[in-house]
Design goal:
N-terminal domain of TfIIb; three-stranded antiparallel beta sheet; four-stranded antiparallel beta sheet; SH3 type barrels; 115 residues; elongated
Length: 115
């Protein structure tokens, strides 16, 4: 594989290309990444919030967008604080308990880390 191509960490496409800056882009899924900032290959799960901050088990997060909940009469409101999250594999990569709703699975792209 030429130095100008790297596999996409999102979809594993082998066609990731340099954008001319430090970033690489995937023509198949549109994901952009900096290969210098990639997760360590020791098998640990790395989950990023909507602003690119690394999330860890036990963190507190804020929901940044109203999220509809299947089977619930009202959505989760933006600004809802969620404590003690747990990271999981898959599309909905945050597992948590939200008061008033119970156990939930959230996508990390709709939350931000609270410092």
């Amino acid at each position: 594989m030429p130095d100008s191509m790297k596999p996409c960490p999102q979809c594993n496409s082998p066609y990731g290309y340099s954008t001319g800056t430090v970033l690489f882009a995937c023509p198949e899924c549109g994901y952009e990444w900096n290969p210098e900032e990639q997760a360590p290959s020791d098998g640990t799960l790395q989950v990023l919030d909507a602003h690119g901050n690394i999330l860890q088990d036990g963190d507190t997060i804020l929901i940044i967008k109203d999220l509809p909940v299947k089977g619930a009469p009202k959505p989760l409101k933006a600004g809802t604080k969620v404590r003690n999250i747990r990271l999981t594999e898959g599309d909905h990569n945050i597992s948590c308990k939200i008061s008033g709703f119970g156990a939930m699975a959230l996508k990390s792209e709709f939350v931000k880390k609270v410092n």
